[in-house]
Design a protein that fits this description.
Elements (H helix, E strand, L loop, with lengths): L13 H21 L8 E3 L18 H14 L3 E3 L2 H8 L16
Length: about 110
């Protein structure tokens, strides 16, 4: 379980972002090393999910049901990563840009 915070600069969440960046890197390493053994490793990236934990936060949130559906669909399809909400997909899409989202977040972030 990863997070879009890896690509979104939020100083108050810097330690959390660093831990998720490390988890993303570790996931990528595991995927590479375990594929020869037939083990599928799926990285699930998502922003906020509409749960009890986030109930007091007024931001767009993914539905838990949608995240689960996307996860199962990705596993069945043999995918390596899931961007479980639009904002996460937009942020990841900026990585190769001249000014990536982790330097200058896209409008609305």
């Amino acid at each position: 379980m990863l997070s879009d915070i890896v690509w979104l600069p939020r100083p108050i969440l810097a330690p959390y972002a660093a831990s998720k960046a490390a988890a993303w890197s570790y996931t990528n390493q595991l995927r590479f090393h375990l594929r020869e053994r037939g083990v599928q490793v799926l990285g699930l990236h998502v922003g906020f999910v509409d749960t009890d934990l986030t109930s007091g936060i007024d931001v767009p949130k993914a539905s838990p049901e949608d995240v689960v559906r996307q996860t199962y669909d990705a596993l069945v399809a043999g995918k390596s990563e899931v961007m479980a909400d639009k904002g996460t997909a937009v942020l990841k899409g900026t990585l190769a840009a001249e000014e990536p989202g982790y330097i200058t977040p896209p409008q609305g972030f």
